[in-house]
Structure formats: structure tokens, C-alpha cells
Write a structure and sequence with these properties.
By secondary structure, the protein is mainly α. The protein contains 5 helices and 2 strands; from the N terminus they run H-H-H-E-E-H-H. It starts with 13 loop residues before the first helix and ends in a 7-residue tail after the last helix.
Length: 129
């Protein structure tokens, strides 16, 4: 089951972090249509956030057509995103790159900025980035 990790220092609204993490899990194939998301209560217990924040995130995902709330049953994945499975050979390459960046003394934010810049360079004009 998906476990949300909330970074209170990120500057990103908590509900958006939940939306982004759900989308990332969909893109990586960790969540598939029919899978059930954790209940709002489970997310609240694990993250100590307001239940309304979880519900707002789930409503946003529903508005985007990615999940469907079934009264009394829970919230279920309705659609998938992307096609980069979690076990992609590219993941090992990225893990190696991240390890080397860390060994070279890069901070997490610097590595993320560099990676984002390279993505932007190679995916110019692509609305999916």
C-alpha cells in the first residue's frame, strides 16, 4: 500500500504532495487501476495531517479522473499514467548517478535542480514535463 511522506519544509501544499506522490506511484506502475488508496484515517494516522487535507487531495485526483471514490468502500485507482515501471533498467542508472552525485558532495536540492535542468533541456516543448 502507498505510504505518503509529507515534507513540511518543502513549501509545497500538503494536499499537493499527496497528489504528486500518487501520480508518481502511477507513473512508476506501483499503483494500477483497481488498487485502493489508503483511507483518510490511515493517512492521518501515518502523517499527522488534517483529514480534510487528505480528502482535498483525493478530490483533486478524482477531478483529474485518476481515482474514484466508492461510498463505504474507499478510493480506488481508475487510470494509470506513463509507462516507466519501477524496475526499469533506467532506474539503476539513475540510482548510480544519484550515488555519485552524493559522493561528490552534492546536496539533495542541488542534485534535483541539476536533474530538472537536464530534463528540461532534453524534453523541451513536451507538455508532460
Amino acid at each position: 500500500m502507498l505510504e505518503y511522506r509529507i515534507d513540511r519544509r518543502s513549501g509545497i501544499a500538503t494536499y499537493l504532495q499527496i497528489v504528486q506522490q500518487t501520480k508518481q506511484a502511477l507513473r512508476l506502475g506501483l499503483l494500477e487501476p483497481g488498487d485502493k488508496l489508503p483511507t483518510a484515517r490511515e493517512v492521518v494516522e501515518a502523517t499527522a495531517i488534517n483529514p480534510n487535507t487528505v480528502l482535498k487531495a483525493y478530490r483533486e485526483l478524482e477531478r483529474e479522473g485518476l481515482v474514484e471514490a466508492k461510498r463505504g468502500l474507499g478510493t480506488f485507482i481508475r487510470a494509470s499514467l506513463g509507462g516507466a515501471p519501477a524496475e526499469s533498467p533506467l532506474r539503476a542508472d539513475l540510482a548510480d548517478w544519484a550515488r555519485r552525485a552524493r559522493e561528490a558532495g552534492m546536496e539533495r536540492e542541488d542534485a534535483a535542480a541539476l536533474f530538472s535542468a537536464v530534463l528540461e533541456e532534453h524534453f523541451k516543448g513536451d507538455d508532460n514535463v
